[in-house]
Amino acid sequence: MSVELGPAEPWTNWGRSASSRPAAVARPTTVDEVQQLVRLAADRGMTVKAIGAGHSFTAIGATDGLRLDLSGLRGVRAVEGALVTLAAGTHLWELESLLAPYGLALANMGDIDRQTIAGATSTGTHGTGAAFGGLSTQIRAATIVTGTGEFLRVSATENAELLPAVALGLGALGVVVELTVECVPAFLLNAVERPERLGTVLEEWGDRVAGADHFEFYWFPHTEVALTKTNTRLPVDAPRAPLGRARRWVDDELMANGLFGGTVALGRAVPALVPPINRISARLTGNRGFTDLSTRVFVTDRRVRFREMEYAIPVAEVPDALREIRALIERRGWRISFPVEVRAAAADELILSTAAGRASGYIAVHRSWREDPEEYFRGVEEIMIGHGGRPHWGKLHYRDRASLETVYPRLAEFAAVRDRLDPERRFANPYLNRVLGP
């Protein structure tokens, strides 16, 4: 055995909403070492959990068994046309430089890029845009180490029936060691960000989503303002007009991180100040236009720590759902400092995708990591359930298998794949047992 187990080290996720104390930690640097480690864990009767960047808010990454740190598995493994094979531990933020020599980019991205490619796709990370699915829909092949310690290649020509499960597998089917992603030619985005009247944006929601490549907005509770973001795709050789260094620092460092972090802390200390602070924030942010590489427009640097819940509902129901959330906040007298984020995505056919079989709108709510989010999140979740909502697998929610079967008609099919690939539940943990069953 060439691999070694390191001493136990406590693990905590980025949002400080989940933690665990594994029995041992290992840091493989090759896929063969991953296989050896899974087999070693099986011999010792240990569970295994691969960890990426820890950006899931749920306890999906918690384990009291063997924690695999995949940071040693990074980089491009192969490129064939637009198909790029990546090591599982490659961070999304690394892809701009890794793909640049090939003139490629991801077709779409979310607004955070700290995650690993395997972690992001395994939990259903997505961006916005009516014609674009989540990151998992871009997967064309995967290599995993199953619960029996075997390598399994899944693609259109090998075990093709498993791809709709493996592409978004929650870490329940095996340790993902490589992913082949279908990229697109590198492109620019023209970004127009501006404050608008919330009522108007909700009335025009369907047209705004359908009429733009990428449309989203943020609503600060206790205000009448929606901060809209409309991105238009352009060829990579189109004229660029990036934000200047000073403007980017003011907007993204001073305002979005420094000042916002201070106002969140102030609002936590004096809740009565949250409404006026939000009104000031809505007036001071979100009014700019620029054109730059897609990664530099999609992604925002967020260092103010928070906890998040996000639900997918039928895209047409977003305005009514947001109005219900607004009424709930007012009725309960809550003081919510973090904005509500609203996006959209195309339907897809992945078994556990939040957009499986339907075009979806996404509503995400947040609270500071120093605040207990449960009352707020449970109240919003009840509204989302009323709209047939599906929770993001990597963000906080309170659903279990029985509840989730009502909105994921193929959940039993996924469970059958789990039985096949991990019959001894080598990759199980309490979160997976709750949402998938033991």
From TrEMBL:
Assigned GO CC terms: membrane
Highest rank taxon of the organism: Bacteria
Record keywords: Oxidoreductase
Xref: InterPro entries: ALO_C, FAD-bd_PCMH, FAD-bd_PCMH-like_sf, FAD-bd_PCMH_sub1, FAD-bd_PCMH_sub2, FAD_lactone_oxidase-like, Oxid_FAD_bind_N, Vanillyl_alc_oxidase_C-sub2
Segments forming domain FAD-binding PCMH-type: 18-186
Cross-referenced Gene3D superfamilies: 3.30.465.10, 3.30.70.2520, Uridine Diphospho-n-acetylenolpyruvylglucosamine Reductase, domain 2, Vanillyl-alcohol Oxidase, Chain A, domain 4
Signal peptide residue numbers: none
An annotated Gene Ontology molecular function: D-arabinono-1,4-lactone oxidase activity
Region (Disordered): 1-20
Stored PANTHER family: D-ARABINONO-1,4-LACTONE OXIDASE, L-GULONOLACTONE OXIDASE
Protein name per the record: FAD-binding protein
